Amino acid sequence: MTAVGAAVSAERVVGWQRRMDAIGATANGGVHRLALGDTDLEARAALIEWAQARGYDVSTDAVANLFITRAGRDADAPPVLCGSHTDSQPYAGRFDGMYGVLAAVETLQALDDAGIETAVPVTAVVWTGEEGGARYPVGTLGSSAFTGRRTLDETLGFKDADGITLGEAVRAAAPGMVGLRQRPLGFPIKAYVEIHIEQGRVLEEAGLAVGIVSGIQGMRRMAIEVVGAEAHSGTTPRRHRRDALQDAIDIITDLRAMCMDDEDAIRFTVGKLSVYPNAASVVPGRVSFVVDLRHTDRDTLERLVAAFAERVKAHAGACTATATMLATTTDPLDFDAGLVAQAEGVAQALGLPTMQLVSGANHDAGPIAGVCPQTLMLFIPCRDGVSHNEAEHAEDEHLVAGTRVHAQLVADLASA
Amino acid sequence: MTAVGAAVSAERVVGWQRRMDAIGATANGGVHRLALGDTDLEARAALIEWAQARGYDVSTDAVANLFITRAGRDADAPPVLCGSHTDSQPYAGRFDGMYGVLAAVETLQALDDAGIETAVPVTAVVWTGEEGGARYPVGTLGSSAFTGRRTLDETLGFKDADGITLGEAVRAAAPGMVGLRQRPLGFPIKAYVEIHIEQGRVLEEAGLAVGIVSGIQGMRRMAIEVVGAEAHSGTTPRRHRRDALQDAIDIITDLRAMCMDDEDAIRFTVGKLSVYPNAASVVPGRVSFVVDLRHTDRDTLERLVAAFAERVKAHAGACTATATMLATTTDPLDFDAGLVAQAEGVAQALGLPTMQLVSGANHDAGPIAGVCPQTLMLFIPCRDGVSHNEAEHAEDEHLVAGTRVHAQLVADLASA
């Protein structure tokens, strides 16, 4: 059956995207919509108004996740959830998160247009604060609280740069949610589908409009600190130096060499590095940096992390070096193979060739998969893989094609 | 003759040093005496009071250099100058600069005690603002203005972190200099002697109390910027990355390899390096760093700088790299060989074994040597070579031994 996918309106999908592009629009063609900030709340208000006008049930929970539900035959059955997030990184792209929400919104309307009554409810969801290190230091706030991966207290306690806790931000958002039904965190769900821009170039290079995400990479982060001794750059001969930058470079070079896999599947990044005291005339006394390591295979992550720690421990340079694992780790996850195959079948029925690919970034689907085995992500291409950047771009035809697969898959899951 | 060297009073030398240690003293045993700041002016006031009480002529100039003159037979003859500076780096050591001023002060008094009338005047000098990057962005302010290496306008126009120009600071210091004779910049001088802590470990390792400085290293600074592309650390495969930190590391590694001389005479330092945007989850899009290169030989500096520029220009990584020479360069200089030999003779006559060594840091003697061929520096050891640090330490016996050589050499130069 492809009735729901076929009912997806290209005009509505693109129209919604253009409307949301304008909320928090930046001078350089991006958006600035920090979690529960003015522009994020403006986007949510537009969705609430639309949903109430159409008679959908609108509800929320203790962390301001937003749910828009189209009823099914069994109103009390666990729904099929679909959606993503409306918040963005600072001065970032228009599609990251928002597209998944709009595809969910269109899915409800396409179900209406196709005249389908599903067995269970279908709920479009906006997860609060998916973008880590944007307004709040960590991401997937709403979905992690929903699944219990983080406690409610910890979640509401995170502070933004102005010292405003998430709890305070949730209370400040309440006027826009007056009259919405309040739901408990973690109500049962039957399945979860999230569509997102790829944030990589795999689909673009393959020339495909839609990809089926087979899993999400795991991540490990390690902070490494190298301590030497500050010294005068003019008077200190090489034999007396304990140059922390030099030793840090040696360590980074060795760690990188361990990650030169032929498959180009290991993601090794040193993105954050600080030199102290950072003066041209002073041999650096201390350098700290963070290694960000990602891979689809947990054993590979563990093996590399152990090898990194061993290399740091065995450091034989003039400086001392210590490694500390950071708490922001996730294990790789594989989405349900049956569901992946089902999504491939849906795309094929709609005449859209697809491929399987792995998500390099974490998404709300990561926490949700921990409590809902029937979780899946779909990707559409974005130009040059650029994301978290105002230049982020997705083609209208890809927005529409992705929404067709999304709508049909959700309809099928809710009808089974 | 060793009468003046022998007349040096250990008690006075150490007493002056302890008195000055207390002016701007820090909790960790160092001093904080920024150029023409309160504590620097307090130190100068103590010197002026002492000089006036003893009947020496005290004078100043347009950049607040301070001159204390003991008359000679020919009152109008160009004097022998000796001294250093009273300002310090922030929270730095007690001996850097100040010791050279106190040795000059003791030299005047030892001449008195020995009952010597010199042929020409002997002038103890305090040069304004020797420490670059402390209160003002560049150093040797007073000596460079004195010699015309920098114009008066440029010198007085430098601003501190609060936007206060050196000109304003000089005017603010005027109340402490009321009644002092005003002299033109760059009056003729017969010779210049400056004694300083070594800020390295050569004398300490050789077990010597005094060293004769044969010259000052030259310095070149090059700013290198590497521009790649910011990318998501989770989604961007190696083949698509343009990692600015990786390319910066490759360049630094290559430049460093060019500096591995057997003599360990080349001073190659990357002390300042910044990563943008400096986030763990973002492949660095830009890295900038400064190469500080020092050597005693101008040709070596020029050869290395050309090789560095060539390496950067030929950079074949994924990123682009550009190199810019910075204006803070100095050429190496050799002090007059005859004067070096004369100083060795003075030390020998005083029973103090010495060696020749090169200064890794620039000093006021650098600019002065440009206008006065009879310029020389002497060094005493400092513990572990530590300087620009509150832990800086020099032994009392070395302070005294150095002052004996300094006083006798100055006396001989002023008597010839």
TrEMBL record, chains A, B:
Where does the Peptidase M20 dimerisation domain lie?
A: 216-316
Where is Zn(2+) 2 bound in this sequence? D96, E131, H388
Q: Which InterPro entries match?
A: Amidase_Cbmase, Bact_exopeptidase_dim_dom, Peptidase_M20, Peptidase_M20_dimer
Q: Which Gene3D superfamilies match?
A: 3.30.70.360, Zn peptidases
Cofactor annotation remark: Binds 2 Zn(2+) ions per subunit.
Taxonomically, the superkingdom here is Bacteria
Q: What is this protein called?
A: Zn-dependent hydrolase
Sites binding Zn(2+) 1 sit at H85, D96, H196
Which CDD domains does its entry note?
M20_bAS (cd03884)
State the gene name recorded for this protein: amaB
Which metal ions or organic cofactors does this protein require, according to UniProt? Zn(2+)
Any one Gene Ontology MF annotation carried by this entry is: metal ion binding
The similarity comment for this entry is: Belongs to the peptidase M20 family.
Protein's UniProt keywords contain Metal-binding: yes
Keyword field:
Hydrolase, Metal-binding, Zinc
